[in-house]
Protein 1
Amino acid sequence: MNFFESANLLGKKLRIVGHCYISGMGRKELAHLLFLILLCLFYVIGNGFGFSNSKLRETTVAMENYGERLKDNFKTDRFDSTIVDKEREHLLLAIEERIAKYLYQIPDYSYIATLETYLTYRPELLHQFPSCVPLEKGNYSLSSRYGMRTHPISKKTKTHFGIDLAAPSGKPIYASAAGTVSEVIYSENGYGIHIIIRHRFGFKTLYGHLEKVLVAKGQTIDQHELIATVGSSGSSTGFHLHYEVWKNEVKIDPRPSFNLKKTIYAEVMDIKPNTHGK
Ligand SMILES: [Zn+2]
């Protein structure tokens, strides 16, 4: 008997055994078996999530630690001795190695506070994810927050997954971070004419109820680039921008992102008086 014949025979035997086993089982046993398989599956999936959560906690602690050391390093000497400089470079490098993965992992803006000191040294990172208001200062007022609310048209209570910024018709709307336009949708209801932009680290932004779209699908854009104008298209009761921030496909509150860039850049000016005005 050659290898193929013996493999064939083994397959046949296994099929017979399997068939006898299954057909010998009653409905009850089969239900038990299915229940056990499901239990195993839940265990594996649950453990997977637990693992990623503990990984996130671990990295957050490490990042906090680096942040504290960076702060101490700055306080040590304002006149930059070589040792202080070297230690700072070391810390910045250690954070750099981990930061992209960390930014992908975090579920919302509450984790960004951990990176505040690092961001004062690398503020250009704030161009890559939503960190500002998409409208010009003085052009808007907050008309509806993120969270539970009574819908202005349907009068039903439901979650508002974005923020409404009331603004006059035709006012310019700017991308809140660099990215690629992934959708331009012309709808008569819902969000009306709207744009979705994909950014780095699992972030996306949505701009709804637009008047005019000034970008095309697939276009690469910079932070603060003009993308559209304020309108009232779709299910809307007045001129406003409905703005959403998505993180890893979950719609999160955009509010903490509004002053992020402003705050960090104010700190940059504060800690680097020597580079100011150079
Ligand atoms: Zn809205």
Protein 2
Amino acid sequence: MDFKFSKEQRDIIRAARKFAQGEFPDRAYEFDQNETFDPELLQSACEMGFVGVFIDEAYGGAGMGFLEHALICEEFWAVDPGIAMSILSASFGSELIQLFGSEDQKQEILPKIVSGQTIIGTAITEPDAGSDVTGARTTARLENGQWVVNGAKMFITNGTVGDLILVFCKTEPEEASRHKQFSFIVVPTDADGYEARKIKGKMGIRASDTAELTLTDVRVPEENLIGNRGQGFYELMEFFNRTRPHVAAQGLGLTRAFLEESINHVKNRQMFGRRLADFQATQMKIAEMATKLRAARNLTYEGAWLLDSGKVDHALIAMSKWFAGQVAVQCADEALQLFGGYGYIEEQRVNRLYRAAKIIEIYEGAKEVEKMIIAKSLLS
Ligand SMILES: Cc1cc2nc3c(=O)[nH]c(=O)nc-3n(C[C@H](O)[C@H](O)[C@H](O)COP(=O)(O)OP(=O)(O)OC[C@H]3O[C@@H](n4cnc5c(N)ncnc54)[C@H](O)[C@@H]3O)c2cc1C
């Protein structure tokens, strides 16, 4: 076994850390409060090569892997989760195109994502179907060589700022198996009948755009189908195997930030004639945070590394996503506790990080869904 990073990986970590520490801190609070983001930052990140590193060189990417994508994510989330999310979610859906798209689709779409010309999103969740993705009711029917898409989608990242949305819809309603009824269709956001309303008042990652979509007789060419008709559910599961290591890495970045903020705070805060760091109860907290971070990191890196080596261990990926999310939420609680009343104020960085943590246990498979995947792999 080799637990060492290559020189290239160390360089990526260093560059991502430098970029995030240089660009994010001054604007993080403003973006969080105003629920906005500056697209120039995305452009700079693209120019530095941080977006879509897992995209093949043939399509303008760096030809690296999901481990490198996770390493960048960890560095970005360790500085500010809202800005990190705005930048790195700009490629959310490119994994699906790289896996199942036609050669034309890959050549047309992927280079523009890497360069920042195109922001992509993926719309699966609906008002009445989240964890149960096969409950989705959005339909697409073929009419004179065009897909006609109708339905509603909920909580869609990049819904109002994106250029293309991959819509998970029912194309084969007559199929007996619910798992064979769905397909992915690419919908440009400037198509007639596409409407997006920004959802404001999120608890955390407020710089990131989240929207509710309505699709009313949206017409797109037949060639906008991604992958195979009726295979959308299976394609979605493969997509999640590539995106969940990234979400796990969000948890790693946040947990690292909680640990660093906590260490810094307890070494400086004086009480009862001593530093907060001098109390054994505090030391237990710091030790537990560091150990949990290490364990979550090992799960996440192993899942991503196996993926890049050609072995998709979906149970391990589910473990990493669940565990890294749980660790982030637990460490958020401990870190805020250590800050006392100061942590309860929005202006404090630890408060913004605390508000961001919970989403990791909810999106791209709630923690219960991840545990179902793990259990199924053990019991079936
Ligand atoms: C900020 C943000 C960004 C998002 N971005 C996107 C996006 O880009 N694209 C997209 O398609 N969706 C996106 N989502 C939606 C997200 O993926 C869903 O919220 C998530 O899948 C959960 O679905 P739900 O909210 O409908 O909750 P439900 O499915 O109603 O689940 C509610 C709760 O029930 C519990 N639960 C679920 N299943 C089980 C079970 N089998 N057994 C026991 N308990 C269970 C879980 O605790 C879960 O949190 C986003 C959401 C947010 C908040």
Protein 3
Amino acid sequence: MLKKAVGFLFIPFLMCITVAHPFSFGDGLVRASQGSSPISSLQTASVKGIRYWSNAAYTRIVIDLDGEVTYQDHLLREDPVLKKPPRLYIDLKLARLSPLLKQPIPIEDGLLKRAMAGQYTPAIVRVVLDLKSVIHYKIFTLADPFRIVVDILGRPGKAKKRVPKPPSLQRPRSIRVVIDPGHGGEDPGAIGPKGLMEKDVVLSVAQKLRNKLRRELGWEVVMTRQDDHFIPLEERTAIANTKGGDLFLSIHANASKNRRLHGIETYFLNFTTDKDALRLAAAESGVSPERISDLQLILYDLMLNAKVNESSQLAECVQRDLTSKLKKKYGKVNDLGVKQAPFVVLFGAKMPSILIEISFISNLREERRLRSERYLDEVATAIFHGLRRYVQNTRMAKAQPSWSISTALSSN
Ligand SMILES: [Zn+2]
């Protein structure tokens, strides 16, 4: 099926993070005729790199280009006669391959053997993914810098069955939370009227929450960033998926041109007609407001696998604890409620996932609060209570080892 690449603009600070990937690849795929070609006079985009993150049941591949292209994807069944593995290939139209990309990338995890690319015709770059088994996949594009994201999922029941260990040898696994402090590095996020930066505030809350979850509940915590550096949005979700997170939360501080706006709101991934929610999703995803509809278009393809109900319940728990606990300490706290919108950082997340706007950094009073360690402690504690309540209220609790639950229930 021919798909039109759906691009949208990311704000300029993201542009400087695109670098040629150290991996290089591409052999046996070159069918381009030698010498000059009329194609060379056409505008083509250069395929600059391939990045990937993977575990046994999931791989995210990102193809980086320096311009927009259209693509066509095909899934080929295994050919036992020719001894060819099943393959997913993606033809990028009006594209050329960077000379740096010569060698295949060995992946060799549960789903993929390798990725490679070649100049298939003078106008087409073909990216080939050699698979280990038949898979389920989704493709979407992001822009500025333009990139094509391929999410590859194992099909439940098709994976090799492992012989389960007897219960006495099974190690109980606690809940694993992936915390994503928004922005970082050259991306400060929103900046308050007195200069406070969103990236610093959300990192601090994330660290406090991490420490509390580990210390008081014994949960495992994975942070998408530990310090002040930038990570592309698609990598944050890839971390959550490949690390096998049970829950994923992206922490942000809100901003509006209207400095009087204040309060707390929590989002989960879904379509919306709410203009303010769309504007926020665009801002948090680095997309110009004119192209926000592109995000909703991408969502049509992704919603099938999204954990909408669980995510909305998780959002309710966190939002309720955030507002009720902060009201007790600070009196006036505006509960803006649970909302839905197409945030890129939540695209393709396999677990219940939410994005929290802990306060408006653009509001003078809330910026002042966000400067206070005590307030950030209270915010982290309230999110902690919300997460714990969600786990207690859902089936996740039943799947947990008894020690983990008793710890959760006894701790306040
Ligand atoms: Zn943000």
Protein 4
Amino acid sequence: MAVPKTAALPLGYAPAGPPPIAATATKKRGGRIGACSAVSAPARSDSEPTALDCDRFSRDPVPATTMYIGHFAPALAASAATPDAPRLGTLFVAAQLVDLAFFAFVIMGVENMRVVPGIIAMNPMDLYHMPYTHSLLGATLWGLGFGLAVLAVTRNLTAGIWAAVVVASHWLLDLLVHRPDLTLDGGPQKLGLGLWDYPLLAIPLELALIGLGFWLFLRNSRGPVGPPLILVAVMLLFQAVNWFAPQPEEMSIALPLVALLSYAILVALARWVGTTRRHRRAAGLAMARYRR
Ligand SMILES: [Zn+2]
């Protein structure tokens, strides 16, 4: 459901104040928004603290992050599509580049999130200010930049295009599951179909996506099956923690740090898996040469 459009705002400008749903969700449970609700809905001015500034020093343990393993399905599918696709580790970075940038920006105070228990069924994250990473324009630009970087390194246009497509796919997948907190260009109109409010739909969808991705990957590559199985097991473990562990009740710096660490682990594992398997067309070519 879209928030009614008001006057157009420039990219990067957050409308002052939180979406009304946040306050409602918090009030219902009688809780607080973050560690100091009075300033947790910041207007973007240099003098005012951000939500993270406000909550930065909270020391509460943070057992879960907002990870979403379905994002890696396009990376696996791209790797399956052509031997010219970037390596699997690079594609895993592409799949979550937008979130990597988001969590880094949260730590820097450039973009903002906070914890609002009950805001949506499957996690308590109110991602209320992310114009540079989770706007369609922003995600497209991140994709273009990453695609150009891959093109510069590999000198392979196909690799660059797949890298860019996988980065941009992040926004479309987020559109399915997020509550309306995404934008087209950082403006006030918020988009999101909110599947995270329907666990019985969202969980099977995510498992189906990642299952399809791994099926394509295994079908179109040759090599030992152990490494991809280890990768999928770790991904499912992380996702299970995300879904079923107690949710954080307050924002803290640990939350984006844990998210970045978990992505780093998955990227390292994917990089390793990529070294153990070859695309079936590349493997066939190598075998033909060997026979000659
Ligand atoms: Zn995202």
